[in-house]
């Protein structure tokens, strides 16, 4: 089936620095990708929808300037957590619609801000 | 908000069938029922989806009631590797935004 490759799988960064997370659709084109975050023992929370060639759409309560999303091509979407703080520590997951299976998810990125 | 509800947790003996229920009483005409599961620290994995008819694949079976207000995911012979959080999600339909909104899911614990 379709694969979305997400990198890095784990990252530790210092407070105040920025971290970029990449998601690539390997064998299909993704004009849309979705970004989620997940706290321990909680469900996935949709953060934003990235659209190739246009601005991302953010869910209510998600800071646009904190979580920068870029959908540079039909196979690549990136999420940059800017000026990260410990409260940004979370599990971030991307997904893309793919006809046969509905949606394909990346393997997730565990961000720890120290 | 998620449009589905299911029990927060279930146990199942290894080798037995696991039946996971889901209520989606407000499902609209062309919305599909999707099931995903998530193991610890991994992204969700697609299991199966359906619209009206029952569906079966190599992983599971999906039984959708005639009124489409509820469904059951069946894992015919549960293994320890099936321990995960299972999510029932609606997607598609006339108000389709393309988004998948996750509810709290059912934590299935398969026991030896």
Keywords:
heterodimer, A: 114 residues, mainly beta, seven-stranded mixed β-sheet, four-stranded antiparallel β-sheet, globular, B: 112 residues, five-stranded mixed β-sheet, 9 strands, 0% helix
Radius of gyration of chain A (Å):
13 Å
C-alpha-based Rg of chain B, rounded: 13 Å
Distance between the termini of chain A: 37 Å
Shape of chain A: globular
Order of helices and strands of chain A: EEEEEEEEEEE
Task: Explain what the structure shows.
The complex is a heterodimer of chains A (114) and B (112). Helix content of chain A is 0%, strand content 54%. Chain A is an all-beta fold and 114 residues long. The radius of gyration of chain A is 13 Å and the shape is globular. With 112 residues, chain B is mainly β. Helix content of chain B is 0%, strand content 46%. Chain B has a 5-stranded mixed sheet with strand order 1-9-8-3-4, with no helix packed on it. Chain B has a 4-stranded antiparallel sheet with strand order 2-7-6-5, with no helix packed on it. In chain B, 35% of the residues are buried. The A-B interface holds A 1, 4, 6, 32, 34, 36, 43-46, 49, 91, 93, 95, 97, 101-108, 110 and B 32, 34, 36, 38, 41-46, 49, 87, 91, 98-105.
Quick gist of this model?
The complex is a heterodimer of chains A (114) and B (112). Chain A has 114 residues and is mainly β.
